[in-house]
User: What shape does this take?
Amino acid sequence: MSDLTLIIGNKNYSSWSLRPWLYMKQQGIDFEEIRIPLFTPDMEAQLAPCFSNSKVPVLIDEGYSIWDTLAIMEYLADKFPENVSWPAYIKARATARSVASEMHSSFTDVRNEMPMNCRIKYQDMPLSEGALQDIERIKALWRHCKRLYGQDGKWLFSQFTIADAMFAPIVIRFKHFNIPLEGVEAEYVDMVYNNQYIQEWMKAGRKEVEIIAEDELLDMEDYLSR
Assistant: This one.
C-alpha cells in the first residue's frame, strides 16, 4: 500500500482533480485514489479532516494534507526530485512556471462556458468574446512554449512537466467543444488527448452516474438517446 493518497472528485467533471492525477501517473508515482463525488451532502464532512476548505483535490502523505492542485504537484516535485517536474534550464523553468500559474489563475470565461465533461462533445456551441480571447491566449502560450523550448519532444517543454498537467483539462475542453486548431497547437492537443492516462481518466468519467446540471450544456435525455 502506498503512503500517498490522492482524493479527487468526479472524473467526468473535476478538471482540478485531473491535473495532479495525470502528473502522478505520468511520473510513475504510486498512490491510492479516493473519489468523493462533488457537491453531495456529505462531501464537506468527508473532507473536513483534510483542512482543504471542502475542495478537491487533496494529497495525503502519511496523514499530512496538501491541498490545491499546483501546491500538490510542487510538493511531489520536492518529494521526488529525480523526476522531471520543471525544465532544467532556468529561463525555460521560469516560462513553465509562468504559463502554469496563468492557467491556475486565469481563463475564467473558458472555465465557465466550456465545463470539462468527458461524456459529451459539442458542435457549434456559441461562446462569448471573452471565451474566444481566452482560447486565443491559450493557443498563443502553447505556440510560444513549443517554439522556444518544445522542439525536441512532444510536450510543451519537450519533456512532460507540471505545465502540461495544468493544461490537460483544456485539451479535453478544446476537443469536446470542437475548437479550431492548426499546426503545433493541433498536434499538441491530439497528442495529449490520446495519452493513455487521459484516455483512462475519460473512460472512467464516462461510466460515472452522477449528474452536475450546471456542467451539462445539453439536455441529458438528448445525450442518453444518442
Observations:
- The chain has two domains: 4-79, 90-202.
- The beta strands are 4-8, 32-35, 58-61, 64-67.
